[in-house]
Amino acid sequence: MILQTDDQTIDDLRLFSKRDTPGIFDIYNTTHTRGAEELLREMFRSPLSNREEINRRSAIIGHFCKTGMKFPFESALFDMAEKYLTDSADAGKGSTQSMLSEKEILNGVTSLISLIQQTKQFLHSEDVRNLQAFAPEREAIGKLLDDPALEPVLSEKSQGKISYAAVTAFDVLLRVRERSKIEKLLSQIYLLDVYISVAMVAAKRNFVFPVALDNKKGELKIDGLYHPELKNPIPNDIVMDQSRTLVFLTGANMAGKSTFLRSLATAVYIAHMGFPVAAKRMEFSVMDGIYTTINLPDNLGIGASHFYAEVLRVKKVATALSQGKSLFIIFDELFRGTNVKDAHEASVAIALAFAGRMNSRFIISSHIVEAAGKLATKPNIDFLFLPTRMNGHVPEYTYTLEHGVTNDRHGMIIIRNEGILETLKNGRKRAV
């Protein structure tokens, strides 16, 4: 089962690189093979929504992290094997690409023989045999290797010095007769590459492996949450459950609201992949979907203003909620595209409606602190804020969550500190 999400959320969380700016994917991508990199990219686009699948994947990666297992193959073998199989397939489809040379066929055959034999050895290693969560993959690989058709490959002892006749025979076997088995075997190795690579990332960065809970619990508990891209992060804790289904987050500009929301949404998203996250501890109830609205652009294609784009976004979320889905929803500065009065009324109305959906979890950040008065009538709405401390005329930010509502507004202080008004005034004098 796949977690429901969309491109807006993927862009909000900066999962993939854009314009030479790295994404979250790049943090986790230390794979050794092109096939594993493609598989990892697909995993990032298709998080899981099944508790058992999430915890099983997490257990596998966690085991490899604990044992410090290294990827047991040379990357160069995959380069030769993939070129051999890919060029062969293209040539067979009438491609204009050149046919494989004798050397390329030899390299392809010897690399596949080596990979198959090394896979057999890996499968019988103690760490792999003792990993119960890896049993389905181990059995799938074992079934492929136990096929009598591959027995000549496993028994080959030439160590790369293969006769022309043997190369010809293996060539027919590997890229023609048993090609589908070879491709399935490579797919399993790519999956192993992903597991081991992500495990190495977890060990290097001290990421934690979240525990997926039953959907009905509706719990989210994270200690020491931070954004994985920050060099010197300030961690935060957050708890959501049946008594706190919606969080109303306030704080001045630059206090860290958007960064916190990205940190939280990223952790929830990555946790649904069964991957380790940037935190000290995390437990979460599996959701059906996750939607964020942190950096919503105007929809110029349909002539929509920013406010109307926000309305359409809320409508999309409401439609998904009306289908009974349990969703994790984040809105950063809800209805910022309209006047304060309309934003106030709309924010209160939407937040109260969200609070009635007890099987989903919501976080709404806002500058409209006046909305908190009406929202406080709902016992399942929690209030958090990111404070600002004034050091003379200079605002300082703790980036640490506190309970309650803040009315910090330091926009004019920042404008004055930057000397903008003075610059404009002096500019007019010079113009005269």
Characterize the structure shown:
The chain is an alpha/beta fold. It folds into 2 domains: 31-205, MutS, DNA mismatch repair protein, Chain A, domain 3; 211-427, P-loop containing nucleotide triphosphate hydrolases (Rossmann fold), CATH 3.40.50.300. It is 49% helix and 13% strand. The protein contains 17 helices and 12 strands. Strands 6-7-8-4-9-12 form a 6-stranded mixed β-sheet, sandwiched between helices. Strands 1-5-2-3 form a 4-stranded mixed β-sheet. Strands 10-11 form a two-stranded antiparallel sheet. Helix 6 crosses helix 8, helix 6 crosses helix 10 and helix 8 runs antiparallel to helix 11 (179-205). The termini are far apart. The model is unreliable at 94-98 (pLDDT under 50).
Topology summary:
Elements: H1 7-12, H2 24-28, H3 34-45, H4 51-67, H5 75-92, H6 102-123, H7 126-129, H8 135-145, H9 151-155, H10 164-177, H11 179-205, E1 211-213, E2 220-225, E3 236-240, E4 246-251, H12 257-271, E5 281-285, E6 289-293, H13 306-322, E7 327-332, H14 340-355, E8 361-365, H15 372-375, E9 381-386, E10 388-391, E11 394-397, E12 402-403, H16 411-417, H17 420-431
Parallel strand pairs: 1-5, 4-8, 4-9, 6-7, 7-8
Antiparallel strand pairs: 2-3, 2-5, 9-12, 10-11
